[in-house]
Amino acid sequence: MALLKKGICYNVLNMKDEAVNCYNGAIKLDPKNTKAIYRKSVCLSDSKKFDQTISSLNKVIEKEPNNALAFFKKGNVFNDINKLDTSIDCYNKTLRIDPNFLEAFEKIGNCFMRLKEYEQAIEISTK
Q1: Residue 74: predicted pLDDT
Q2: Residue 48 phi, psi (nearest 5)
Q3: DSSP conformation letters of 39-91
Q4: Quick one: 61 and 74 in the same domain?
Q5: What was the pLDDT predicted at 19?
Q6: What is the pLDDT of residue 81?
Q7: Are 16 and 31 in the same domain?
Q8: 3-state secondary structure of 126
Q9: Are residues 52 and 111 in the same domain?
Q10: Residue 85's domain spans which residues?
C-alpha cells in the first residue's frame, strides 16, 4: 500500500515516471492490485503513452470486468487518438455496467458531434 500512496504523491507532483515506477512496484508485490494498475494507466495516458495505457486498462478489465471507470477511461484514450467508434463502444460498455454514469452520455454525444452524426448526438443528449 505504501508504494501505491507514494505513486499517488508523485502523480500529484506531475512526476509521472516516478509514479509509474511506484505503481509497477505495487503491481509486482500484488499482481491483482487493480488500483495500482488503473492509476498507472492514468499516468501513462497523461504522458500520451496510449498503447501502454490501453494495455494497462485491459488488465484492469480482465481482472474486474464490471469496472465502469476502466471502460470509461479506455473510451477517453480512444477518443484522444481519434478512434471515435471504438470510444463510443467503450462508453456504451460503461453505461451497461453503470447506467447512471452521466459523463459517458456526454462523451458519446461529443463523439457523435465529431463524427458529424448530429441526430445521434441529439438522441443521446436526451437520455
Answers
A1: 98
A2: 65, 30
A3: HHHHHHHHTT-HHHHHHHHHHHHHH-TT-HHHHHHHHHHHHHTT-HHHHHHHH
A4: no
A5: 96
A6: 97
A7: yes
A8: coil
A9: no
A10: 70-127
Distance CA 120, CA 33 (A): 38
Let me know: does 33 contact 26? Beta carbons within 8 Å.
Answer: yes
Q: Is 87:79 a contact under the CB 8 Å cutoff? A: yes
Contacts of 40 (CB under 8 A, 6+ apart): 7, 19, 20, 23, 24, 27, 56
For the record, the C-alpha cell of 9 comes out as 504523491
The answer to whether residues 61 and 77 belong to one domain is no
Q: Name residues of the chain where pLDDT drops below 70.
A: 1, 127
Note the pLDDT of residue 126: 76
Look at residue 22 in the predicted model and tell me its pLDDT: 96
- C-alpha to C-alpha distance for 109 and 95, rounded to whole angstroms: 13
- Written as one string, the DSSP assignment of 84-118 is HHHHHHHHHHHHHH-TT-HHHHHHHHHHHHHTT-H
What is the grid cell recorded at 3?
508504494
> What whole-number distance in Å separates Cα of residue 98 and Cα of residue 95?
5
The total number of structural domains in the chain stands at: 2
